[in-house]
User: Which sequence fits this backbone?
């Protein structure tokens, strides 16, 4: 258990322990403005010893970034709300990263605040051969990179401890990574660097503006919401090709999003995706996926029974072997804000589970 409660340094930031709250969209910020309810929600988890809050996805300042209602944004009208929320979390001794999110082709026509704006994508595709959205020109891509970079500066100026770029689950950055959604012939579609140019430009330009000490993290995943079996990198070698340029561009930490943290990523080794990422990049990594639960979160969207609580022995063994540096906890922290304290104090039998009843009541 000690391994979970040691501080860790991410670039210049000290995070008090190894447990992060996974980013989770709640659609609870009318007009994109973080409210006191949002503040209390995060503060409560911070007060109960979550070492790093990763916010729900926050919209990139771009007309097509939004795909869902009441998602928070970074416009001026939101700044006071964020500043209050950030201080509340930090005053509890925790740290807070802003997850920056553009949904790309997942955007459905008619979304507020600009219903006429179509989904933007690298190649007009949301999955293989499924052409549904607008294909960005090189100028569009350049504009979007600039918007991301400006937002990262805003995130720093608001007082967030770091930024997490949402490069996972088949949204915009991932649509650049994935060969099924990026068939561009220009510099942003090159197979030789596994289509990492877009994110590398964001990171290296932002790095110049926020300075060398500001933590920048990338969340990525093999799986896509469009295809749970998709794989960006089918072998350790291709994972190296993918992560190398991103790490060199200046990412400090990787968040390897998997649905079940205990599953080995490649044959012949027990390491999971976060384990391989740490081994390849030598940078700190976060693992995630069904921690403390016995079934994965996709069930939530396909109407399956929800998970019960389960022991975290396996996780602790993996920490002891130093396979990764932090763990993100999603649903277990939704249903029980005191999850970390209960685990720390050996009161697992008192944890409020993310059960069918919980989902029926709150989702
Ligand atoms: C309600 C809900 C909202 C989510 N929203 C986001 C999001 O905004 N950004 C993101 O990267 N992942 C999102 N996820 C995925 C979680 O961050 C996490 O990876 C997933 O739930 C697996 O962790 P868990 O098994 O501990 O819940 C969401 C998950 C849930 C359950």
Assistant:
């Amino acid at each position: 258990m000690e391994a979970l409660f040691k501080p860790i340094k991410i670039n210049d930031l000290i995070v008090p322990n190894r447990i992060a709250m996974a980013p989770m969209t709640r659609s609870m910020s009318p007009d994109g403005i973080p409210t006191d309810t949002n503040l209390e929600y995060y503060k409560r988890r911070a007060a109960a010893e979550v070492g790093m809050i990763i916010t729900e996805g926050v919209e990139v300042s771009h007309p097509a970034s939004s795909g869902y209602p009441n998602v928070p944004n970074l416009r001026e009208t939101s700044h006071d709300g964020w500043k209050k929320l950030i201080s509340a979390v930090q005053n509890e001794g925790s740290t807070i990263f802003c997850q920056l999110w553009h949904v790309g082709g997942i955007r459905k026509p008619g979304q507020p605040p600009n219903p006429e704006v179509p989904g933007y994508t690298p190649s007009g595709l949301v999955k293989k051969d499924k052409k549904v959205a607008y294909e960005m020109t090189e100028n569009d891509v350049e504009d979007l990179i600039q918007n991301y970079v400006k937002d990262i500066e805003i995130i720093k100026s608001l007082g967030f401890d770091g930024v997490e770029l949402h490069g996972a689950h088949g949204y915009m950055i991932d649509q650049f990574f994935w060969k099924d959604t990026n068939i561009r012939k220009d510099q942003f579609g090159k197979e030789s660097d596994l289509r990492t140019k877009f994110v590398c430009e964001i990171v290296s330009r932002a790095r110049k503006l926020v300075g060398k000490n500001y933590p920048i993290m990338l969340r990525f995943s093999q799986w896509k919401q469009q295809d749970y079996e998709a794989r960006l990198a089918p072998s350790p070698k291709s994972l190296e090709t993918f992560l190398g340029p991103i790490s060199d561009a200046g990412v400090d930490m990787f968040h390897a999003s998997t649905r079940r943290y205990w599953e080995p990523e490649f044959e012949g080794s027990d390491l999971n995706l976060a384990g391989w990422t740490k081994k390849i990049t030598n940078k700190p990594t976060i693992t995630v996926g069904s921690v403390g639960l016995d079934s994965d979160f996709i069930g939530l969207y396909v109407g399956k029974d929800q998970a019960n609580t389960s022991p975290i022995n396996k996780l602790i063994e993996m920490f002891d072997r130093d396979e990764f540096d932090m763990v993100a906890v999603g649903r277990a922290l939704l249903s029980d804000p005191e999850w970390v304290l209960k685990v720390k104090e050996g009161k697992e039998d008192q944890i409020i589970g993310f059960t069918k009843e919980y989902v029926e009541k709150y989702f």
About this structure: The pocket of flavin mononucleotide is lined by residues 22-25, 56-57, 99, 166, 168, 219, 257, 288-291, 293, 297, 300, 329-332 (CB under 6 Å). The longest strand covers residues 216-224. The radius of gyration is 19 Å.
